Amino acid sequence: EIVLTQSPGTLSLSPGERATLSCRASQSVSSSYLAWYQQKPGQAPRVFIYGASNRATGIPDRFSGSGSGTDFTLTISRLEPEDFAVYYCQQYGSSPYTFGQGTKLEIK
Amino acid sequence: QVQLVQSGAEVKKPGASVKVPCKASGYTFTSYYMHWVRQAPGQGLEWMGIINPTDSSTSYAQKLQGRVTMTRDTSTSTVYMELSSLRSEDTAVYYCAREAGERAFDIWGQGTMVTVSS
Q1: What residues form DSSP beta bridges with A21?
Q2: Where are the strands (E) in A1-108, listed by range?
Q3: What is the pLDDT of residues B31-52, one digit of tens each?
Q4: DSSP 3-state assignment of B64?
Q5: How far apart are CA B22 and CA B81, in angstroms?
Q6: pLDDT, tens only, B51-101
Q7: What's A59's DSSP letter?
Q8: Residues in A touching B99 (Cβ below 8 Å)
Q9: Cβ(B104)–Cβ(A35) below 8 Å
Q10: What phi, psi does A32 have (nearest 5°)?
Q11: How far from B24 is each of A25, A26, A27, B90, B111, CA to CA, in Å?
């Protein structure tokens, strides 16, 4: 089983700042099948990034994903108020399809 | 539009079973795998398993083996997740999610809250 470790656990930033979220895998993620999801309270998760670096439909270009192998990053170039939420990474290249424990992005 | 619709909240006693439906619409049901993911209160996401709606083949998370069963009904485009021998630790929101290949889990149900309490 691939274990995903996200850091930091909580990130406190202000609107307009840049956010960098990390996801490290215990072994290489096949075909860069690494996704990032945003989840807001009371809502289902929503895919933001798939294939490590591809934005899902309707996702603004201030969101970008990078990385390969075991190290992946989600970057939000300039935070908007609606971006404050919990973000999960997930590997879906091999079963079991594991999730990281999440990073809570909160307003400073 | 493409959507997954789940049933309402359930309250079950320890030792009982729960069966949660997830009805798909707006796309060809057999063209996409379906997954189940759960989230305990205040916790992260836990992958439970996958079902292939074409042939109903399944794969489950090891920790749930023997207690979880995923099935499908192609006539109604519905997948089901049944969890037996419920315990308090199974209290969670249960989501179905469509897998779109490299596009990951692109459509999610709204979630079904299952509470296990005596």
Answers
A1: A74
A2: 4-7, 10-13, 19-25, 34-39, 46-50, 54-55, 63-68, 71-76, 86-91, 103-107
A3: 999 999 999 999 999 999 999 9
A4: helix
A5: 8
A6: 999 999 999 999 999 999 999 999 999 999 999 999 999 999 999 999 999
A7: -
A8: 92
A9: yes
A10: 50, 35
A11: 32, 34, 34, 24, 13
CA atoms within 13 A on the CB side of B92: 22
Residue listed under structure tokens 């945003």: A38
**For residue B10, pLDDT beyond 80:** yes
Distance CA B118, CA A24 (A): 40
The residue-averaged pLDDT of B93-111 equals: 97
At residue A28, φ and ψ (nearest 5 deg) are -60, 135
**In chain A, residues 4-33 whose CB comes closer than 8 Å to chain B:** 31, 33
Neighboring chain B residues of A90 at a CB cutoff of 8 Å:
45, 47, 104-105
Confidence class for position A65, pLDDT limits 50, 70, 90: very high
Q: Which of A35, A44, A101 sits opposite B108 (nearest CB)?
A: A44
Residue B23, C-beta contacts closer than 8 angstroms, at least 6 positions apart:
B4, B5, B6, B76, B77, B78
Q: What angle do CA B26, B112, B28 make, to 5 degrees?
A: 20
The token duo for B59 is 């794969």
* CB neighbour list of residue A23: distance below 8 Å, 6 or more residues apart: A4, A5, A6, A34, A36, A67, A71, A72, A73, A74, A89, A100
